[in-house]
Amino acid sequence: MRSQGHGQVQRWQDRWWAVGLLVLVVWVGIRLAFDGWSGWPGILIGGLVYAGFMTWFVMRRRRRDARAVGTDAARVPELERRIAKNGALPEDPAEQAAMIRLIRRREEKLRRNRWWAFPVLTVLFLGIPVLWFAAGNVGAGLWGLAFGAAFLGWMVWFNRRFVRRMAGMRQRIEGVGVQGGGGRPVGGAEGFAHGAR
Q1: DSSP β-bridge partners for residue 2
Q2: SS3 185
Q3: Which residues sit opposite 9 in a β-bridge?
Q4: Which residues pair with 154 in a beta bridge?
């Protein structure tokens, strides 16, 4: 399958079924590690429901991002990968403009959500092990606490790195003189596609 207008082959990892399969495998693997094989039918059914929901959520987010920044939904994961890896700039000026708008959209969402997202995740990942301790399941509590602390630490590190790379990629693109309509640099308020904010 090719992305419309760009002639690029979409990676299999970016397709909806690959997203769903990854979520299913991770969910079932974690649940089996904690609960054992005895409850596998319920774990599998719960995994299918959760994978279906997460696939729908990820695909919906991609479609919204694509509409907001003016590109095809199949291109959003590739643009995000280039930003995260501080990779090569797109050669197409329209793709550079879409990348700038995607960066600004991500930056705005991070600013809007940072006051509540990390505290909620902290309560979730560290609160559940406390409940396991209270229920007398010390092993699950210790595993949950270790996983929660490691995940939160990784998330803080990844978020800071991604923010730095977004800023660096935006500066690289704006530095090469990409011009939007009317001779203005893309990426400012006038660089947003309709509905990007």
Answers
A1: 9
A2: strand
A3: 2
A4: none
